[in-house]
User: What shape does this take?
Amino acid sequence: MSHDFGPAVALSCRECGARYPLGPSFACLECFGPLEAAYEFGNVTRADIESGPANIWRYRSLLPVPADVATKPNMNPGWTKLVKAGNLGQALGLKSLYVKDDSGNPTHSFKDRVVAIAVEAARTFGFHTLSCSSTGNLAGAVTAAAARAGLDACVFIPANLEAAKIAMARVFGGKLIGIEGTYDEVNRFCSELIGDPLGDKWGFVNVNLRPYYAEGSKTLAYEIAEQLGWRLPEQIIIPIASGSQLTKIDKGFKELVALGLVEDTPYKIFGAQAAGCSPVSTAYKAGHDVVQPVKPDTIAKSLAIGNPADGPYVLDIARRTGGAVEDVTDPEIVAAIKLLASTEGIFAETAGGVTVGVLKKLAESGRLDPEAETVVLNTGDGLKTLDAITGDDAKPTAVIRPSLDAFRAAV
Amino acid sequence: MSVSVRIPTILRTYTGGNAEVSGEGATLRDVLAKLDSDYPGIGARILDESGKIRRFVNVYVGEEDVRFAEGLDTPAPDGTQISIIPAVAGG
Assistant: This one.
């Protein structure tokens, strides 16, 4: 049976280049390396893209999806705002700064992009249940997308996640299973489940559907370039959990150049981690090309992956583009959430605190060119990580009786 | 020293489709050597040319990722469960 994945023609191993037919497989039989979609792009023009819908399907000819994807029931994520952040830029001494604000997606995180691609793959392969291992945002994105697509859902999370992420993943129906352990243990569990009859006909978006799922992150690169007027940004700060998003944004930029949709101008990619889970940053600073796994301990739970599979590729990209990988502490994350909120009116989740915190750190240490066009990603919504806002920050400035005298006294 | 080894789907061609096989050895290195003599070729899928665990393979002895323990020298006591799992990610 032939599957319609649009311009995608095969899966190829990122490590050794071995090629496989398009199927629900994710690891190379030769070397265990990750499989990626390989394409034969047709002639894609700016006009074709611009005439498409205001969501990721405007880029369908660059993604592993059928041409009629926009007619199927899915969440239609993407085309989120690229906010010109003049106030934040001024605070940090950066002349041209933008926030790509992915909290505007249907379930308020960038995960809707990747899940939308995975849903199409699940449909194509005839899977009946959509599943994932999740640090939180993904679980909600999967249960919502499954509800809309008419699929069953069963998602797995570390049991100690933020209450808002748990409620959000539950409200869309399906099963939500808390695992007593870290994300890495949840991931391991899912890898074992996938090889068991229990998990037969299940599409694990970030395991057996990962070659398709991961491509969804390229749409961040496409949108940023298109929203900048078909230009590549000169500097971009991207959060690192597994490292997949960062590697796919780089891939997206390279594809735009190869297809002649943007000019081939240099860009620097900076990766951002929380100090409490910074295996990639640690390896970068030590000059290593392998990543030693860690046990995470940070409020940035959506980035708390101690054994990031794409870590080595992130190191390659940061070094190749002249960027860096940096990390910030939990207090710096909270301060950055407040800085972004008070300068630009954007309430970021902890992962956005990580990117803005790293942006600040890089700017202050002179590692960013203050004249260069810079984009910082906010991948999720602050309402999901309210735990980060505590003490006086989570209370009214004052509580008074409804009288002018009381107000005068209070302010 | 008998241990149980969980085999991922992509290596089950070597084990006749079995998801779980028994193994033997004092350390993970010994267990993998014995595994390769029982199922010729499987060792080269898990270890690279220099004999190190491949970059995209995670091996667990009991609950512990061996990269946190002593790698290939991690002891494999009687009755231990060893799992070989492809590295995947995406939170």
